[in-house]
Design goal:
disordered N terminus, disordered C terminus, about 190 residues, 6 helices
Length: about 190
């Protein structure tokens, strides 16, 4: 039998990074093992998180592959200027690839209904940071004088990174509410 607190089963999994915890609320079957509303809320929260992580993986790979695979001349067309040595954009592409691998690990955890808190934190910091850096660059003289292709890609990147940050923060909030909803035995905690 699994340990329970107030009808909520607490599962622990070991990962190479750290111990992850997740709460599962079994569907109500008349035995007091949770509520249908809590189970539905949990199902919706994890489905949304899986969609966000899948979209983030696709966007990250779309940014990584050109940096890793395109010749320097095409990179210069896309970016306006390619730092020399060309190794620097390649390293950036590799960093994006590593980020996508971390996101995929989080996606696998979310599929198993384990809250991938470090993947979510990493995503908020990386997407939020990218949005801030890209936004500030777009307002510099260098950004305003960049080739049109670079400005379009930069503007699109600002929008995508901002949307991803918002979606990850919203997912984080949903997971936090889920934890407190489940811990209260399926009843929302009243603020005092």
């Amino acid at each position: 039998a699994l340990p329970t607190e107030g009808g909520v089963c607490t599962l622990q999994r070991q990962s190479p990074r750290a111990e992850l915890m997740a709460t599962r609320t079994p569907p109500s079957n008349g035995t007091g093992g949770g509520t249908a509303a809590a189970a539905q809320h949990q199902k919706h929260a994890f489905a949304k998180l899986r969609q966000v992580l899948t979209f983030k993986i696709v966007c990250t790979m779309l940014a990584a592959l050109p940096l890793l695979l395109l010749p320097a001349s095409l990179l210069e067309t896309l970016l306006g200027v390619v730092p020399h040595p060309v190794l620097l954009p390649r390293l950036l592409g590799l960093a994006y690839l590593v980020s996508a691998v971390g996101d995929y690990d989080g996606l696998l955890q979310a599929r198993a209904r384990v809250v991938p808190k470090w993947t979510m934190v990493m995503g908020i910091v990386s997407s939020g940071g990218a949005g801030i850096l890209l936004s500030s660059y777009m307002f510099t003289v260098e950004g305003r004088n960049a080739p049109v292709v670079t400005q379009i890609l930069g503007g699109a990147s600002v929008v995508v990174s901002s949307l991803l940050t918002w979606a990850l923060v919203e997912s984080w909030s949903a997971m936090w509410k889920l934890k407190h909803f489940a811990a209260a035995g399926g009843k929302k905690k009243q603020e005092e």
